[in-house]
């Protein structure tokens, strides 16, 4: 995501030379390259021109602080303007009415049904809401069955009416069902439709009028680029929706839709889809997205993901074990599982400032943890608790049982011992001693 744009912008900033003031002469080529980079990323032309005009206006005549270069000053200006272009601040979903009704709309194949389930899972787990999914796609074969399967996966009830072909009636009855059973949030999944199909657009307008949703969300595939923006504009004229959801933002996309959709439609991006799993959903933060586009990482999101997996009670138990030198392979395995729950490893590394470019051409095997888990699972309970038992014959047995080699087992045992030492130092001797130990480990 955004790799090409990030590279082009980086090259544009390097065109600024010298110190002192940013003049019209030395900024012209940089602004031209920034505009080209945005257009190549499939940003709407009018939006790209308006953006670079603002950047130029902001930059001209600015004194460059002695501690930074003109290029660094330009990065700051572009960052702030990018964040503003994408909405400035995150926009919360409206959950005030009871029940709160959320109507999902969008093109065929945009990922509405899957994202309806993702949103249900998010609101249930993060906001503590009771959710009812209402299946109103009566046209696509197996759409209702798909929603039921996803609802079962996340533990959310799905309302549907077999044999009924009127989605307006199903939507109204679904809301009534939620009221009867005290369910405070209703997500209505509708059929995909084309903006040029007047009959289908009239149908979703009727659903909207019948249920009066607190939120109408437009779901769009980010990989469709500028077409996504044009489609959003057409749907907004009919529905006057409240926000946009960009799906497949983890795909091979140039990012133009994310950058220009707010400027063109004047509606905020509220969520993004970043994978196929049910938890692959993120609240859209314009400032953090600007950070990532400019290669600054996204450390806040990384910390938030870590906190989601953080269990205070488990942490206290672990601290006591470390203090008593009782950290075991079972504890080591738990830490691995927590890291895996945080998401794709390459994406996580890319959130660390300065790591995005370094990781660009590196493939991280998402199955890398499997061999580690296999080795630990091949140990007996006694061996996991007391690694000193792991003599040569035991290591050979573990390697055979896990489908690995003895050197692989030896390497893992050393990693375990190093991790245990460092974690104990952090717990008992402070971070400074831990840093010294890490340097020794690298040697």
Describe the structure concisely.
The protein is α/β, with parallel strands linked by helices. The protein is 57% helix and 9% strand. The protein is built from 21 helices and eight strands.
Q: How many discrete domains?
A: 3
CATH architecture assignment name of the largest domain: 3-Layer(aba) Sandwich
Based on CA inertia axes, which overall geometry fits? flat
The succession of helices and strands, N to C, reads HHHHEHEHEHEHEHEHEEHHHHHHHHHHH
Taking the alpha carbons of the first and last residues, their distance comes to 35 Å
Spatial order of the strands in the main sheet?
A: 3-2-4-1-5-6-7-8
C-alpha Rg, in Å?
26 Å
Give the averaged pLDDT, no decimals.
78
CATH superfamily of the largest domain: P-loop containing nucleotide triphosphate hydrolases
Count of beta strands: 8
Q: What fraction strand? A: 5-15%
User: Largest sheet, if any?
Assistant: 8 strands, mixed
Could you please describe the fold and organization of this structure?
The protein has 443 residues and is α/β, with parallel strands linked by helices. It folds into 3 domains: 3-85, SRP54, nucleotide-binding domain (Four Helix Bundle (Hemerythrin (Met), subunit A), Up-down Bundle), CATH 1.20.120; 100-296, P-loop containing nucleotide triphosphate hydrolases (Rossmann fold, 3-Layer(aba) Sandwich), CATH 3.40.50; 304-442, Signal recognition particle, SRP54 subunit, M-domain (434 Repressor (Amino-terminal Domain)). 57% of the residues lie in helices and 9% in strands. It has 21 helices and 8 strands. The protein has helices at residues 3-13, 24-40, 45-59, 70-85, 112-127, 143-154, 167-180, 198-211, 226-239, 256-265, 286-293, 299-308, 312-323, 329-341, 345-350, 355-359, 368-377, 381-385, 392-402, 406-428, 431-442; strands spanning 100-106, 131-136, 157-159, 185-190, 215-221, 243-247, 269-273, 281-283. It has an 8-stranded mixed β-sheet with strand order 3-2-4-1-5-6-7-8, sandwiched between helices. Helix 6 links the parallel strand 2 and strand 3 (157-159). Helix 1 runs antiparallel to helix 2 and helix 20 runs antiparallel to helix 21 (431-442). The radius of gyration is 26 Å and the shape is flat. Residues 429-443 have low confidence and may be disordered.
